[in-house]
TrEMBL record:
Residues 1-22 form the signal peptide. PANTHER family: ARABINOSE-BINDING PROTEIN-RELATED, DIACETYLCHITOBIOSE BINDING PROTEIN DASA. InterPro entries: Bact_solute-bd_prot1 (IPR050490), SBP (IPR006059). This is ABC transporter substrate-binding protein.
Amino acid sequence: MKTTFRKWMSTGTVIVVAAAMAAGCGSSANTNTASNEQTNAATDAKKTAGNEPNAKPHAGKTVNLVTANHPWAEAIKPLLPDFEQATGIKVKVESFFEDQLTQKLTVQFTSGSATPDVFMYRPLQEGKLFYKNGWVHPLDEYTTKDPAYDFNDFSKSAIGSTTVDGKLVGIPVITEQEILYYRKDLLQKAGIAVPKTLDELAAAVKKLHDPKNEIYGFVARGQRSPLVTQVSSFLYSEGGDFMKGDKATINTPEAIKAFTTYGTLLKDYGPPGVLNMSWPQAIGIFAQGKVAFYTDANSIYSNATDPSKSKIADQVGFALFPAGAAGSKPYNITSWGLAMNAKSANKEAVWAFIQWATSKDVVLKTQQKGNPGARASVWDNPEGSVGFPKELAPVIKESAKGGVDHDRPTVISVGEARDAVGEIVQKVMTGDTNIQAVADKANQALQAIIDKDKTK
């Protein structure tokens, strides 16, 4: 089985490349050649499978896959026929918007449904809840069965995001890091170097802030709950965290400094209405050319670089998150993963699908479509960066080497915890002068959430 699967993986690559050549070339001779190569490769795969009695041990099985309406899902769907041909497993796909997806999964799992067999999920938003409720099957036992899978190739931080209580709950498919976006033209005109520290960022923001001419120094998420994921990198880079073990730590000196820095940048140098901005509004005003610096997830870069959406598409720069007292420590998380239903009747077939979908070859293909994966070898491969702007790819690669595996408090009641943290930053933004008292109260609230979750 293992030898055949590896042979198929290599053959599958030939099939996809040949198909791409056929689609992109106008010569009938080349098209015929590509078509012949594809036919021969498919025939070879069938012969190989037919020569080994156990080449398709799961043939005839059906795996029900539920995905989010996400670019990764769109990238994987055209590749499914290759998997089905090589394994004999049929994959049925359903896709939903994020909120609908969570609702569907919760309803089905609560009722004890054996479907879907495998599904996309947000590890830091739902992973702990799903695991505590017994809805997901840990994958630790599977990852070392086939050495060719090379589980150690995955980013440790990305795996940390999909690990709950020491158990591997899912496999990363999409990673995300916080980076610094900036206006290259504004920095060049003012003779300012790209900030490498938070102190340098604050100085550059102040210098470029020119509200009379509708140029603001800094923008980021200002809404109470959405801001939490982005202030997290400020927190880690100053040496703090939301929790230490089971103890809330959002009132420490490190936390106060981080929250104050973020809140002050928005209060003093942000555009009007920033208190109510989530990422669409924040990157929207940056894309209008009205802000010098913007910090957020690398995954939304196209909103600033797409000429149809951005007035400054050719002037957007990307940089590593600036260092604080503890260095540059952006979050480096799995924003989407694949997990197995604990009630699935086809667990071996489900793992065969997950192993294929997160293999090096398939991750390369989905990453080439602009979906940042978690495999170091794919990022080390020059072909793995073709789906990203030339200046962004090295920033993602460098950010993925370290970082912190969460961007919010790791609790079951994520929404309540985010509100507690966001309250502190918003008080800074509205000019509250006793932030320590605000943080102490918020810390008590977060601790109560942590304690309550232990009983769930």
